[in-house]
Structures are given as structure tokens and as C-alpha cells.
């Protein structure tokens, strides 16, 4: 299918004109088209399928075997064998039988899937990070507003009652003034391999549709699926993968509703000699005032031979808000510690289905105000990760460069970098300082959402993809 954007818009014009932001009736089924039938898509299927009066009517993936597998999952859950299998997401978006699109595609498809869906009059549940590049995320926000669509970002902890409650308490000053926030993402992963010859594309995969906006480059890793996260053409690394969940919560706690005014990152891809490109160890500093955010992301084992990542303050994945009168930690739980570090409160919750239900409630009522994570919020949390990546991209290695940056860092950032160096030393990585990429401190105008200062031209160039492969072009939304 070689539909151009002009043809696509012509084909969907009638749908758009007849499907303004009217609310669905209380007894009307909301018909879902799932695009992206991988690991996350498989998680979302039961979360949506179990919501009353919601039907998953189509499942799409450029890997036809995965689309068929997930359609069977729908049938097994619902007892209704009616989910249509597609390989081209444009067919789902164009369909008159779809009210809302649930997008769990690879990152490089996020913006295009959502924008096309909005143009076609569909509401969108968009997985995080909101987009592959910040400029694309901006277009998604514009599309949601222009076409009056309800667009929810999939940072699902925004819908956890215990998280919402603790955020209200932090922002009300119950624990005193926030001093800083930390993001901890320590997720053990393994090498993705490094082939001497390109991987043969499986016959069940339409590689043209899989690549979409990205180049159809040869693949030298061992697996096509999921490990795209660690390639810059299609993914954004762990900072934007799992890290953006906690960046979102840290921002929320601090009351920050814009991107960071300055950012710097240091890290690298060490220990593995594989085809991956994104860092597997990284520290990023976001110079929010009066309370900054320090993020640390690691994919390596805590020690040689281990099959798990280490912890920091009892967390492998979570946020920490250090306040004058106590510390709050959380992820799928909330823990409050007093000034002496004693736990005085702890609650646990893992209700991922609450976020899809919130989206459906907003769609059914026609009220975007009901969303717990509207597109504008997802733009900030995903954008923070992308800011950190820009600093990393513009970095360079060298002991002298590392030492200069380290000496200019805040004391708390130094202690975070020291933990990273200690971890690498535990793994037997010699001369880690010489191998780490040290990114520049970049200043940023949060109103215009453009980098400023000495490296502005280079940094702003990285806010969008240099070129798109036709016809999969993200165009400016005016």
C-alpha cells in the first residue's frame, strides 16, 4: 500500500468531518485498533479488553505472525474471534470501524501513527516516550489540538491513586521544600549481539512497513524486535524507554511543567562489544530551580556473573524526592522516610489497567480534561529524556574532558557519577573515565523549546530527524 499523505487525507476527510469530539453514548462500545503487537502491545490487550463496552476490533503489526498471535490473544480473552489482522497501520487508521487507536509501535513510528490517527478523527492512546524526536512531539501536541482529539500518553503511573495522592502532599508542602529529585532506572539487560553479516529479514516481516520513517538499514544485531530501542535510527535508549516514566513523576513532584533550562549527560556503552549504539550507563543532570533532577540509568549487572542490576536506596526503578523534612520514594509503591531515614509510611499498587480505563472514560465523555496524562504532559516527560540524549550525542571522550566536567558538577551529581564509576570498576572495566562520553552543558529556552548558547545550532539540529523516508513523512502541523 503506497498511500501518500495527500491521498490519505482525502480518503479520511469524510470520516473526520463526521467524527468531531462528540462523546460516545454510555452504552456505545468503544472500538479499538491496536497498532504495534509486540511485548507492550501484548500487555495492553488485556488492560483494554477487560474494560466494559470496549472492543479490540483490529490488531496491526508489520510482522504478520505477531499480529495474528495478538489477535488470538484478544479472542482467548474475550471469546470473540473478530479482531482483524493487519500489517499496515494506515488500514487501521482509515477504518470506519475504529474509534480510537492504541499505539505501541517502536519509537520511530510514534509521532506518525498518532498524527495520522488524529487527522482521521481517531482518539489516541500513545505509548511513551511520546515521540522519537522533540519536534515530532510538538507536532503531536498540535495535531491533538487542531483535530480536537483526546490523546493520552502511556506513562501509566499518573493514574495510580497512591501516586496522585503523594504528589498532592509533596506539592502542598507537607514534607517541606523539595531539595532535589532523583530518577533511578537500573534494568539488567544483556548484549544484543554483533553479526558479521546483516540479519536476514524474516519472511513474515514487511520491512518497509517496519522501518516506516526510518532508513531501511541492514541489521547487525541478533533480534529485530525490541532491541531497536538501542539503535539511534529507531530508538532512544533506556533514558527514554524506562527512564521517562520516572522523569515524569519527578517533574510532577517538583511542579515543573516545562522542559529543563539546562541539561548535561555523561555515559557510554561499555562492557559489551555489540551492535548497540545507545548508552548502557548514563547520568543526566537537569538544572531545574530551585530543585534539580539527577537521573541515573544502568543496564549492566551489579557485579560479574550476576543476572540482575543493583539497587540505590532500595530501588531498581523509581523516583526519589528529597525534601527538607523527609524523603519520598516510589514507582509501583510509595514510601515515606523521615529525616533520619526511617520508613514511616509505605503503600503498594500495581494497577496498570487504571490508565487505559482513564483514557476510555475521557473518550466516552468527550472530555480531555479527564485525562491523567494528556499529550502535553507526555511531551514534557519524553522531552526531558530527549534533552539528555542531545547532550550525550554532542559529547566526546577523554580523561581531561571528563575531569573538567566532573570538577564543574554539583556535589550531588559528583556522588552519582562516583557511583557509576564504582559500578564500572566492580565489573572490571579499566580506565572507565577515558571511555565515557561527556556531553556539554546545554542551555534551553523552555518557552520556544529551542537550545541556546554555544552549541545551539548543533543541538537544535538533533531535535528532529534529518530526513524521512517517503511516504512516511512527519509534516509540520499548522
CATH superfamily of the largest domain: Dihydrodipicolinate Reductase, domain 2
Q: How does CATH name the architecture of the largest domain? A: 2-Layer Sandwich
Q: Helix segment count?
A: 16
Q: What is the global morphology?
A: globular
Structural class: alpha/beta
**Average pLDDT reading:** 95
Total domain modules: 2
Number of extended strands: 17
Rg over CA atoms, rounded to whole Å, is 22 Å
Low-confidence parts, pLDDT < 50 over ≥5 residues?
Answer: 1-6, 8-22
CATH level 1 name of the largest domain: Alpha Beta
Distance, first to last CA: 27 Å
- Give the fraction of residues assigned to helices: 25-40%
Main sheet specs: 11 strands, mixed
In terms of DSSP E residues, the strand content is 15-25%
CATH topology of the largest domain: Dihydrodipicolinate Reductase, domain 2
Fold topology:
Layout: H1 5-18, E1 30-35, H2 39-49, E2 54-60, H3 64-78, E3 84-86, H4 89-94, E4 100-103, H5 110-119, E5 123-126, H6 134-146, E6 151-153, H7 161-171, E7 178-186, H8 207-211, H9 237-241, H10 243-254, E8 262-268, E9 281-286, E10 293-298, E11 317-323, E12 326-330, E13 333-337, E14 343-348, H11 354-365, H12 375-393, H13 399-408, H14 411-426, H15 432-435, E15 437-438, E16 442-445, E17 450-452, H16 456-461
Parallel strand pairs: 1-2, 1-4, 2-3, 4-5, 5-6, 7-10
Antiparallel strand pairs: 7-11, 8-9, 8-15, 8-16, 9-10, 11-12, 12-13, 13-14, 16-17
Helix pairs in contact: 2-3, 5-6, 6-12, 7-10, 10-12
Amino acid at each position: 500500500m503506497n498511500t501518500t499523505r495527500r491521498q490519505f487525507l482525502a480518503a479520511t476527510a469524510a470520516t473526520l468531518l463526521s467524527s468531531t469530539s462528540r462523546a460516545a453514548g454510555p452504552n456505545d462500545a468503544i472500538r479499538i485498533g491496536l497498532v504495534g503487537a509486540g511485548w507492550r502491545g501484548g500487555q495492553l490487550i488485556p488492560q483494554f479488553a477487560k474494560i466494559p463496552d470496549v472492543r479490540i476490533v483490529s490488531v496491526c503489526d508489520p510482522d504478520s505472525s505477531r499480529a495474528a498471535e495478538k489477535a488470538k490473544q484478544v479472542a482467548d480473552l474475550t471469546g470473540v474471534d473478530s479482531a482483524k489482522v493487519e500489517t499496515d497501520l494506515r488500514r487501521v487508521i482509515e477504518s470506519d470501524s475504529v474509534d480510537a487507536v492504541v499505539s505501541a509501535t517502536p519509537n520511530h513510528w510514534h509521532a506518525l501513527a498518532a498524527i495520522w490517527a488524529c487527522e482521521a478523527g481517531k482518539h489516541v492512546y500513545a505509548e511513551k516516550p511520546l515521540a522519537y524526536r522533540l519536534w515530532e512531539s510538538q507536532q503531536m501536541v498540535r495535531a491533538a489540538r487542531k483535530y480536537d482529539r483526546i490523546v493520552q500518553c502511556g506513562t501509566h503511573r499518573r493514574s495510580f491513586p497512591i501516586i496522585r495522592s503523594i504528589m498532592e502532599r509533596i506539592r502542598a508542602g507537607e514534607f517541606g521544600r523539595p531539595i532535589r529529585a532523583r530518577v533511578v532506572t537500573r534494568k539488567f539487560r544483556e548484549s544484543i549481539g554483533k553479526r558479521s553479516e546483516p540479519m536476514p529479514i524474516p519472511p513474515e516481516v514487511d520491512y518497509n512497513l517496519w522501518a516506516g520513517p526510518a532508513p531501511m538499514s541492514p541489521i547487525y544485531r541478533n533480534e529485530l524486535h525490541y532491541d531497536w530501542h538501542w539503535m539511534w535510527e529507531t530508538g532512544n535508549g533506556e533514558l527514554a524507554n524506562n527512564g521517562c516514566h520516572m522523569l515524569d513523576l519527578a517533574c510532577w513532584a517538583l511542579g515543573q511543567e516545562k522542559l529543563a533550562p539546562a541539561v548535561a549527560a555523561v555515559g557510554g556503552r561499555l562492557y559489551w562489544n555489540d551492535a548497540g549504539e545507545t548508552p548502557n550507563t548514563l547520568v543526566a543532570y537537569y538544572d531545574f530551580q530551585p530543585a534539580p533532577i539527577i537521573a541515573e540509568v544502568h543496564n549492566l549487572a551489579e557485579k560479574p556473573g550476576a543476572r540482575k542490576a543493583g539497587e540505590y536506596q532500595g530501588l531498581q526503578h523509581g523516583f526519589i524526592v528529597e525534601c527538607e523534612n523527609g524523603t519520598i520514594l516510589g514507582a509501583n509503591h510509595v514510601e515515606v522516610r523521615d529525616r533520619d531515614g526511617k520508613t514511616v509510611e509505605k503503600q503498594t499498587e500495581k494497577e496498570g489497567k487504571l490508565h487505559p480505563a482513564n483514557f476510555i472514560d475521557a473518550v466516552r465523555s468527550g472530555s480531555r480534561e479527564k485525562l491523567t496524562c494528556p499529550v502535553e504532559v507526555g511531551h514534557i516527560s519524553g522531552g526531558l529524556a530527549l534533552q539528555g540524549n542531545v547532550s550525550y550525542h554532542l559529547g566526546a571522550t577523554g580523561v581531561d574532558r571528563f575531569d573538567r566536567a566532573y570538577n564543574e558538577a554539583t556535589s550531588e551529581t559528583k556522588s552519582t557519577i562516583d557511583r557509576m564509576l564504582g559500578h564500572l570498576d566492580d565489573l572490571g572495566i579499566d580506565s572507565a573515565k577515558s571511555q565515557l562520553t561527556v556531553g556539554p552543558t546545554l542551555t534551553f529556552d523552555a518557552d520556544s523549546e529551542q537550545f541556546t548558547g554555544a552549541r545551539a545550532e548543533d543541538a537544535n539540529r538533533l531535535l528532529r530527524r534529518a530526513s524521512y523516508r517517503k511516504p512516511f513523512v512527519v509534516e509540520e502541523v499548522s
